[in-house]
Write a structure and sequence with these properties.
The structure holds 2 protein chains of 2 kinds. Chain A is an alpha/beta fold. Chain A is built from 8 helices and 9 strands. In chain A, α5 links the parallel β4 and β5. The longest helix of chain A has 17 residues. The two termini of chain A are 35 Å apart. In chain A, 28% of the residues are buried. By secondary structure, chain B is mainly alpha-helical. Chains A and B meet through α3 of A and α1 and α3 of B.
Chain lengths: 229, 61
C-alpha cells in the first residue's frame, strides 16, 4: 500500500486559513489502512479544524466525506458536485489522489493534508515500512523476495557493504541489513548459490518519470481511438 | 494499555487546536482506593476551576 502521514496540524491550518468553506475529503484505500486519511482520520481532522476555528471566533463551514479511492475518476465523480460548493478541498489522499481530485475540480484549490511517504507494508500494528521503490524492473526473484533497492539504504544489488553489524544496518541499529535477510532466506530455501551470481547493471532506463502504463485491452472510446492512430 | 495511549493522543489533539491538555487526565486506581479516588476528583475539580469553562461550550451558551 501507499503509506502516508498526516501533516502537522499547524501546517494544515496555515494551508487552509484563507478559505471560508472547506470539504475534508478522505480516501478509503491505502491511507485508510495506514490510518492517515480514512474516514476516522477525516472525522478527527474536521472536528479539530472546527474546534480550532471556533476558538478563534472564526466562521468556516467545514464538512467531510470519504470516498473509496481518490486515484480513480469513477469514485470522485459522485462527490464532484458537493465539492464544487466549497472554497477549497482538503484531501487526505496520497499525492496521486490529491492530483486527480485537483485535475477533476480544476478551478478549485485542492490542499494536501498528508505527506506521502512510501510503498510499504504493515510491519506491526502502528508500524509501516518501505518495501518497494516502484523501480519498474522487479528483481525480487533473484533476492529471495527481499528488495535490496528499497531496503538497503545504498541500494546494493551485489551483496552487502562492510557496514553490517549483527544483521543490522550501519545507518540505524533498528534497521535490518537487507543483505543479511537475503542471505538468511536464500539459505533457508537452499538457494545460497544465487549469492555467487553477479547481478548485471540495473536497468534504470525503465524508471523514467513521469511513468505511464497502458493496457490496450481495456481502452475505450476516444482514448482507444487516440492510441490506435 | 490502550486507554493510556489514547488519553496521551487526546492531549496532543487538544493542544494542537489550542485547548489545555490538562483538561483530560487518566488515573490508575484500584476499586478499593477510595482516598485515591477522592484525591483524583479533588485534583480534577481544582484543575477545572483554574482552567475555567471550556471556551467552546461558553460560545454555545
Amino acid at each position: 500500500m501507499i503509506v502516508g502521514e498526516r501533516k502537522k496540524f499547524e501546517e494544515i491550518q496555515e494551508l487552509v486559513k484563507d478559505y471560508k468553506s472547506l470539504l475534508v475529503l478522505g480516501c478509503g484505500t491505502c491511507v485508510s489502512v495506514c490510518m492517515a486519511g480514512g474516514e476516522k482520520e477525516v472525522e478527527l481532522l474536521a472536528t479539530q479544524l472546527r474546534m480550532a476555528t471556533q476558538l478563534k471566533n472564526g466562521n468556516v463551514n467545514i464538512e467531510e466525506v470519504t470516498i473509496q479511492r481518490q486515484c480513480d475518476r469513477e469514485y470522485i465523480e459522485p462527490v464532484l458536485e458537493k465539492a464544487r460548493g466549497f472554497d477549497a478541498v482538503l484531501s487526505l489522499a496520497c499525492g496521486a489522489g490529491v492530483q486527480l481530485v485537483a485535475d477533476m475540480l480544476d478551478t478549485q484549490p485542492v490542499i494536501p493534508g498528508l505527506n506521502t511517504r512510501f510503498i510499504g507494508v504493515a510491519e506491526a500494528e502502528g508500524i509501516w515500512s518501505e518495501r518497494c521503490r516502484a523501480c519498474g524492473n522487479c528483481l525480487l526473484a533473484d533476492y529471495a523476495g527481499i528488495c535490496p533497492i528499497a531496503r538497503c539504504p545504498k541500494g546494493l544489488v551485489n551483496g552487502q557493504c562492510g557496514g553490517q553489524r549483527d544483521g543490522k544496518c550501519e545507518t540505524s541499529s533498528e534497521r535490518d541489513c537487507a543483505w543479511a535477510l537475503i542471505y538468511e532466506r536464500l539459505s533457508k530455501q537452499g538457494l545460497l548459490d544465487k549469492m555467487k551470481e553477479m547481478a548485471p547493471l540495473k536497468d534504470y532506463s525503465v524508471q523514467l518519470h513521469p511513468a505511464r502504463q497502458v493496457n490496450e485491452a481495456y481502452l475505450k472510446g476516444e482514448v482507444e481511438a487516440v492510441h490506435q492512430k | 494499555m490502550r486507554a493510556k495511549k489514547r488519553v496521551k493522543q487526546a492531549k496532543i489533539l487538544l493542544q494542537e487546536i489550542g485547548l489545555e491538555s490538562d483538561r483530560v487526565e487518566m488515573y490508575n486506581l484500584g476499586a478499593s482506593d477510595a482516598p485515591m479516588f477522592a484525591s483524583a476528583c479533588n485534583e480534577m475539580t481544582q484543575r477545572a476551576r483554574d482552567l475555567g469553562p471550556n471556551p467552546l461550550r461558553k460560545e454555545k451558551a
